[in-house]
Design a protein that fits this description.
Order of helices and strands: EEEHEHEHEHEEEEHEH
Radius of gyration: 21 Å
Structural class: alpha/beta
CATH superfamily: HUPs
CATH class: Alpha Beta
Strand content: 25-35%
Shape: globular
Length: 249
């Protein structure tokens, strides 16, 4: 195996409380800490572990977004990726367009595995990996909690509603990661310094010939309704009566 391509999405850090803009046109990002999407960080960790076991010779991290996304790619390089590609886009790129961008990079890089997080914590779409596999006409294994490589095959344990499911797919393939796959490594200062010297290529999304016009229009953003105060009940009978009053039983 030669290359593993890993997608890294820039998102509002999961520790930050997301706030909606007063005019309802989006969420506040000015001055807000941005990080690698947690599921994508797990994907990168798995790619690095595969390389460390001799299953790959190069790990390439890819991100689609504005110029500031270089910060997250540098973090990926500090974790251990060999090089990075930023597909610069100044507007929101929907999952189908993102999948088409990855397909263009696959045609150029010819990776054996494309590792993506199962979803972004900002939009929760859970679509890009599946769409990419369909466009690439290659197998997919989503929600991976364990990955084992054996020659030209990958044995993947998936987290599904009924429990765990183990499947085997031929490589090249698209794998998407779940939370329990691994725990990403801590980035040390010397690695951050080394990452500054690693190659980071910037490609304009228009040069790839991918149609990025949005297919959906978001008309308004609203914060979730404030949680109502709880009610104390004395016994089960009073609980049942309260539930009946609310039409829940």
């Amino acid at each position: 195996m030669s290359k593993i391509l890993v997608g890294l999405k820039r998102v509002v850090d999961y520790n930050v409380r997301v706030r909606v803009k007063p005019d309802g046109t989006g969420v506040v990002t000015d001055g807000v800490k941005m990080s690698i999407n947690p599921f994508d960080e797990i994907a990168l960790e798995e790619a690095l572990r595969i390389k460390e076991k001799g299953g790959a010779t190069e790990v390439i991290v890819v991100s689609i977004g504005p110029a500031d996304t270089q910060q997250q790619l540098r973090t990926g390089l500090a974790m251990g990726a060999d090089r990075a590609i930023l597909v610069q886009a100044d507007s929101v790129v929907e999952p189908l367009a993102a999948a088409k961008v990855f397909l263009k990079l696959i045609e150029k890089e010819s990776p054996q595995i494309v590792l993506l997080g199962k979803q972004g914590i900002d939009d929760d779409n859970n679509q890009t990996g599946q769409m990419l596999a369909a466009l690439w006409d290659r197998p997919q294994a989503t929600f991976a909690s364990k990955v084992e490589l054996d020659g030209g095959k990958a044995k993947v344990t998936r987290e599904v509603d009924a429990g765990l499911e183990t499947i085997e797919v031929d490589l090249p393939a698209v794998l998407t990661t779940d939370l329990r796959l691994n725990e990403p490594r801590y980035v040390k200062l010397p690695d951050i310094m080394k990452a500054k010297k690693k190659p980071l290529e910037t490609v304009a999304i228009a040069s790839l010939g991918v149609e990025t016009a949005p297919q959906f229009k978001t008309t308004k953003y609203e914060p979730p309704a404030a949680r109502s105060k709880g009610v104390m009940v004395k016994d089960v009978g009073e609980l049942v009566a309260a539930l009946k009053q609310k039409g829940l039983v």
